[in-house]
Amino acid sequence: MPWLRPFFLFVFFLCVLCSTAKGGSFARLGVDYGTLGDDLPSHVRSVELIRSIGAGAVKIYDANPAILRALAGTRLRVSIMVPNDLIPSIGTNASMADAWVATYVAPFAGAVRIRYLLVGNEILSYRDIANSTWPFLVPAIVNVRRALVARSLRDVKVGTTLAMDALSVSYPPSAGKFRADIADSVMRPMLQFLRKTRSFYFVDAYPYFAWAGEPTAINLDYALFAANSSLNYFDPGSKLTYTNLLDQMLDAVAAAMSRLGFRDVRIAIAETGWPNGGDLDQIGANIHNAAIYNRNLARRLAARPAVGTPARPGEAMPVFIFSLYNENQKPGPGTERHWGLLYPNGKRIYPIDLSGRRPVESYPPLPPAENNEPYKGKLWCVLDCGRRRAANATAVGEAVAYACGQGNGTCDAIRHGGACYYPNTLAAHANYAFNAYWQQFRRGGGTCFFDGLAVQTKKDPSYGSCKYPSSSN
Questions:
Q1: Which candidate among 51, 112, 131, 292 keeps its CA 20 to 30 Å from the CA of 349?
Q2: What is d(CA 437, CA 430) in angstroms, rounded to the nearest whole number?
Q3: Is pLDDT above 90 for 261?
């Protein structure tokens, strides 16, 4: 009867809302909200900013009650995390899991849309905890899930995040295979759990790193979702054609799961993105590329019906972009501090709408990409006098002591009588010590960071008879 039509439409609408509330709709991208910065806005302001850029979800790297209180009453889907160091205790003691859920989840369950709970972050990438932590990962996941169910919190999907290095083979995608040291001992029972609970395999997938590692073998446009059909990749094993690098990575994970007999486990992207800056010797880390990647990703994820991947066409998935802010306290190479969509003052690094509704062609022009080719000149590492921490004599002195204590004769030139002893100032000695350490250890992973005190430079800091060692790229 005609008068019933509005009623059925209303019921249908309620059903859609219900499906969305349970994580059934992932149209809008989420964002990873990291807090490793000493200049970040308040949590309340951060939540306002997350909503202003069109995000539909947010992932945090703990279960910070202050952040959860700021998220209360919003419609954002929320992912929280159990810290890595708690995995052994939670994995061996169900009461510890229940206590953690009682403290960090239950008090917020009514006001915050907690939809994902991740037990640890990329722990299978750390070989030094293979014996102490890996065996307890799946038991910890199981115990946390039981604690949630005991409190009737059944809408929360439980899992863990894994980097792409969980695979020993990822190319071609159809050959995807888990590492032998984790395939049967960790991945098989984990996938059994994910299948049983209809949860997700949460992967951190970064086309940037794959491209930056082989920029001559992988086309940049292919990594940025901007390639034309001439750059498509044909997988000889699956007979599938790929138009972008992220799809290849995701289908390699799918193939690895299928190889163990778990073709039906769903995939979610816990982290992806592109750095907007980095060190002088880091290729392709710039605002132009970051904007292109993230805008194209947002548009792709907003498509309905869902695009999926060649191996899983039409499959929607939760996706989180890393990250909300540039975080100045993250250690490692310069890119680690330049993944943000926003500067710490809240200003957008480039315009973006994570809802994917804004046409890409409507954005204003981007600054040109000036480092898409490897840097060829010489580089040095010196004290960054432009940073506030450089005025902290104690911090600088400790960093100099660390640099000089790592190698054999690293700082001989700044000892009394050495060619670089004068001027006998902390800043001058820090310049030499930082550079000497970096030149000696950079090929083995040493970085020009020193807890935020150092910066790369193209200008030779040598003077008189004091010669600074340099490196060429």
A1: 112
A2: 10
A3: yes
Catalytic status, residue 122: yes
Catalytic option among 271, 327, 336, 370: 271
d(CA 4, CA 87) in angstroms, rounded, equals 54
Q: Which residue has the tokens 């990962």?
A: 137
Distances (CA, A) of 156 to 84, 112, 121, 122, 200: 19, 11, 17, 20, 11
DSSP letters, 365-409, are PPPPP--SS---SEEEEEE-TTSGGGG-HHHHHHHHHHHHHHSSS
Count, residues in the chain: 473
Instruction: Return left, alpha or beta for 330; rule: phi > 0 is left, psi -120 to 50 is alpha, else beta.
Output: beta
- Does residue 38 sit in helix, strand or coil? coil
Q: Which two tokens stand for residue 170?
A: 């990822």
DSSP lists the bridge partners of residue 378 as 472
Nearest to 198 by CA among 137, 109, 268, 251: 268
Torsion, Cα 327 328 331 332, to 10 degrees, reads 90
Q: What predicted TM-score, i.e. pTM, was given to this entire model?
A: 0.91
Distance, CA of 322 to CA of 270 (rounded, Å):
8
| Whole-number Å distance between alpha carbons of 296 and 44 | 29
Cβ contact 36:121 at 8 Å: no
Q: Do the beta carbons of residue 302 and residue 356 sit within 8 Å?
A: yes
C-alpha–C-alpha distance, residues 48 and 108, integer Å: 19
* Residue 271 appears among annotated catalytic residues: yes
CA 413, CA 419: separation in Å to the nearest integer?
5
Return the bridge partners of 178, or none: 167
Task: Report H helices in 214-328.
Answer: 220-223, 245-259, 287-302
Quick: pLDDT tens for 106-154.
999 989 999 999 999 999 999 999 999 999 999 999 999 999 999 999 9
Helical ranges in 186-286 per DSSP H: 188-197, 207-213, 220-223, 245-259
Q: Compute the distance between CA of residue 460 and CA of residue 455 in angstroms, rounded to an integer.
A: 13
Find the catalytic residue in 122, 214, 361, 398. Answer: 122
